[in-house]
Amino acid sequence: MGKGLVAVAWALLVLASTPAFAQVNFVGEWNGRYHEDQPDRVPGEEPGDFSGIPINEAARFYGDSWDVARHSVLEHQCAPYTLPYMFFGPNQFRIWQEHNVDTQELVAIRMHMGTYQQQRTIWMDGRPHPPEYAPHTFQGFSTGVWNGDVLTITTTHIKAGYYRRTGVPASDRLTVVEHWMRHGNVLSQVTIATDPVYLTEPYIRSQEFVLMERGNTNWLYNCEYVMEVPKDKNEVPHYLPGANPWIGEFSAKHAMPEAGVRGGAETLLPEWKPGAKPAAPRAGANGGFAPEVLPQRLAAGDVESVHVQGNVHMIVGAGANIAVQVGADGVLVVDTGEAGTSDKVLAAIKELAPGKEIRWVLNTGMNASHTGGNEAISKAGRTVNGNIAAIVAHENASARMIKAGVPDAARPFNTYFEGNRDFPFNGEPILLFHDDATADDTGTVVMFRRSDVIAAGDLFRTDSYPVIDLANGGSIDGSIAGLNRILDLAVPSKMLEEGGTYVIPGHGRIGDQNDVLMYRDMLVIIRDRIRSMVEKKMSLEQVRAARPTLDYDGRYGTDTGAWTTAMFIEAIYREMSASAGSAGQRSVR
Questions:
Q1: What does the alpha-carbon distance between residue 276 and residue 268 come to, in Å, rounded to a whole number?
Q2: Could you tell me which residues come within 8 angstroms of residue 567 by beta carbon, excluding any fewer than 6 positions away?
Q3: Strand pairing class (420-425; 414-416)
Q4: Which of 323, 268, 287 lies closest to 502 in space, CA to CA?
Q5: CA-CA to 260 of 20 to 30 Å: which in 351, 373, 555, 581?
Q6: How far is CA 117 from CA 55, 381, 507, in A?
């Protein structure tokens, strides 16, 4: 081989072993450059200002109900900003990189946020996003790819938050795509938020950060929530429809058309004029921008397990969520799923605890989606004295099952009647709590104290409004009280209101205290609205027409199926009407 060919071959070898281009380095400490939209960043927004955001009617209704005093609620005090807002407030952050030790390939970009001391990881190794039933966090789950010198980041699994502190909501179905570009000591960031619940099209913003010569991202403090003013700790400050005194103040102060500051995609156009019709949502999922396929979705008919923490796992796909605790003593199962799924459930349990026997089966209620597998799961197990695994529930659950004609082999015989019960299993205390009137009067909440996991049953769910079964003792007030109990039991990780105690819902994804808090807040607000309408002598038809659940329907509502939004409103209406009647009778006496 000639010298020329050798040189060419060597050059090709070198090129094949090195990246096609050098990746931009974002390592360093960065500080926000506040020069655009100053009021939107520092010192903050003004009440009633929804301008510049392509929100829908539901988000506007939510914002009109927002009371800034909600930040004073104990569990809200230490909650940090979520990703869509995090970079737009005063924020300094540190970036560093994690490389594979052997190949030196970039595995992840790590971030420490000065505000609220949050940690963020942007995975660069091609891993998929978590399944849809995985927990959400304030910063979500992020993956990054290079497009030339631009780093494109996609984030899912973000907790519910807001786009602006005026109460413009961001749902937990949000996806955020970021583009990072560096020019010298300036980092430019473009964020594209798509939200099928509250936005009619992607919300695009940009900002810049400057590299600091001297680092200063150590804004360290201990956030300890405190009751500064004596009041009901479970109070949820909000304005009833039409009662917010701040609506109109911002537009009057700045001599702007009120319709313009109310937000909406149509107001973003330069040709917009007051009186213009609202813009129709773009075709597709938020204009086709939302990469909704990123979270791994469970195929119909599949049953899978996921480790929650400690000794506890969750099985999904069997109709209702199933909690499984495994350990040296054997297996304890909370709920058994719907009929016809037991073979797959038992196979999943066998994988979690090979060679271990099912000793206990606990029921969180009487619903068939939770108890349909009782007989099969119980008979597949065995107590220490050789009997089939015992089914445990509150006595109301057993009584309701008898009335419904459930066979003896499928209903609980080990029952309790008191408000709570406990017993040890697998090296940790198992705590059972009963409230007489949640979804119905049969409910049990199960806490695994050492694993720090709560199985809430249908008291808490992330896929729909709660089922309020009035005929079987259910109530909205009891549901709120039961959620308040979970808030008392749950403790978040560190100072950031996430993680810590995990809560397995009856249906939907794994939650934590913050998720339960947002669900509780929603129920309090909807109940108060309907109660106010009842006090005004509005009929059920008038209440439905007023749409008291509008701001949450995109997330939890439905017009089809066994439990519709109309049925949910009616249940609360009848409960509030009965309460108003009882109060009137007491006042006559």
A1: 12
A2: none
A3: unpaired
A4: 323
A5: 555
A6: 30, 47, 32
The residue among 155, 129, 152, 208 whose CA lies nearest residue 23 is 152
Compute the C-alpha angle 14/15/16, nearest 5°. 90
Q: Are 93 and 211 in contact (CB under 8 A)?
A: no
Of the pLDDT bands very low, low, confident and very high (cuts 50, 70, 90), residue 180 is: very high
Q: Which two tokens stand for residue 16?
A: 């094949």
DSSP codes joined into one string, 302-336: --EEEEEETTEEEEESSSS-EEEEEETTEEEEE--
Burial class of 249 by CB neighbour count within 10 A (0 to 12, 13 to 18, 19+) = middle
Among residues 569, 361, 355, which one has the least CA distance to residue 476? 569
d(CA 420, CA 61) in angstroms, rounded, equals 40
Mean pLDDT of 336-363: 97
User: What does the block give as tokens for 487?
Assistant: 């808030």
Instruction: Please tell me whether the overall predicted TM-score, pTM, comes out greater than 0.90 for this model.
Output: yes
Comparing CA positions, the residue from 556, 530, 366, 340 lying closest to residue 442 is 366
User: Cα–Cα distance between 298 and 294 in angstroms, integer?
Assistant: 12
Token digits for 404? 């419904």
Per the DSSP assignment, residues forming a β-bridge with 327 are: 330
Contact 84, 177 (CB under 8 A): no
Is pLDDT above 50 for 78? Answer: yes
Q: Which two tokens stand for residue 495?
A: 């100072």
Secondary structure (DSSP) of 231-289: S-TT---BPPTT--TTTTHHHHHTT--HHHHT--GGGGSTT--TTPPPPPPPTTGGGGT
pLDDT of residue 21: 53
Tokens of 6: 């050798």
Say what angle helices 565-588 and 476-489 make with each other, to 10 degrees. Answer: 100
pLDDT-based confidence at residue 13 (cuts at 50, 70, 90): very low
> Taking residues 365-380, what's their average pLDDT?
97
Strand pairing report for 390-394 and 414-416: parallel
Query: At residue 176, does pLDDT exceed 80?
Result: yes
At residue 275 the predicted structure's pLDDT band, cuts being 50, 70 and 90, is confident
Average pLDDT, whole number, for the chain?
89
**Cα(128)–Cα(491) distance, rounded to whole angstroms?**
29
CATH numbers and ranges of domains, the chain: 28-226 (no CATH), 304-523 (3.60.15.10)
CA angle 351-354-357, nearest 5°? 115
- pLDDT at residue 43 in the model: 66
Highest mean pLDDT among 212-226, 239-253, 320-334: 320-334
Helix pair angle (476-489, 513-535), 10° resolution: 150
